[in-house]
Write a structure and sequence with these properties.
With 213 residues, this protein is an alpha/beta fold. The protein has helices at residues 4-16, 22-30, 62-73, 94-99, 113-125, 162-166; strands spanning 51-54, 57-59, 82-88, 103-110, 131-135, 148-153, 155-156, 168-179, 183-191, 194-203, 206-207. The termini are far apart. The structure holds S-adenosyl-L-homocysteine.
Length: 213
């Protein structure tokens, strides 16, 4: 169920849905998603669906991980990494692992300690070392580490937090789902003159919550 064939089938599905970046597809092909869910769910890890990871949270759907990553790196020369990326909502650590291939450094915030602890162990086991994890409310970003060339949020706030916009470098991109019962994925690009907001597609994420637990 976690064989190379099963994984290749997922890649085919993602291509059918329009994921075109070879580098993103390769990252999905090579990072073992089954290690980011409980053993009892490992057999479903290469289905294109979100799966529960405890605490009412989910590991994001592979399609959305691929799509957000592709939108984050779009226009980068092939093989050239972003310098510094911020992720809000480490969750299982799966998206973090994918991002670690596209940035020199990934800074990731999570507000649920036990999820962060598990994510840290998984990333260590995979020898992914260019990731900094912090237990904190991501709505204020991570000011000391910014500005960021990319920010990716894995949970949906009702409005885009101003601090995240403030921590974007010029030319940097923020990928964020926004809304409550109805959510839309946005890409916001910081330009010399302000922010350009692009509406991408309807999505379904867990809510962005403030405070830590
Ligand atoms: N990319 C993760 C998604 C996990 S679900 C994965 O694929 O596993 C979203 C995560 O965002 C949850 O773990 C949730 O606890 C976290 N989250 C929600 N609001 C947050 C906030 N304000 N700050 C930090 N993390 C937050």
């Amino acid at each position: 169920m976690t064989s190379q064939r099963t994984r290749d089938r997922l890649i085919g599905r993602l291509q059918d849905q329009g994921i075109a970046s070879f580098e993103v597809l390769d990252a999905i092909r090579s990072i073992p998603r089954h290690l980011f869910v409980d053993e009892a769910l490992a057999h479903r890890a290469y289905e294109d669906t979100a799966l529960p990871i405890g605490h009412n949270q989910t590991i994001s759907q592979p399609y959305i991980v691929a799509r957000m990553t592709e939108l984050l790196i779009q226009g980068q020369p092939q093989g050239k990494r972003l310098k510094n990326v911020l992720e809000i909502g480490t969750g299982s650590g799966y998206q973090t692992a994918i991002l670690s291939r596209f940035a020199d450094q990934v800074c990731s915030l999570e507000r649920i300690k036990s999820l962060q602890d598990k994510a840290r162990k998984r990333l260590q086991a995979l020898k992914i070392r260019n990731v900094l994890l912090r237990y904190a409310d991501g709505s204020v970003g991570w000011k000391d580490k910014g500005p960021f060339d990319g920010i990716l949020a894995a949970a949906a706030p009702a409005e885009i937090p101003q601090e995240l916009l403030d921590q974007l470098a010029v030319g940097g991109r923020l990928l964020i789902p926004v809304g409550e019962s109805k959510q839309v994925l946005y890409r916001v690009i910081r330009t010399e003159n302000g922010f350009e907001r692009q509406k991408i597609e309807d999505v379904k994420f867990v809510p962005f919550r403030s405070g830590v637990r």
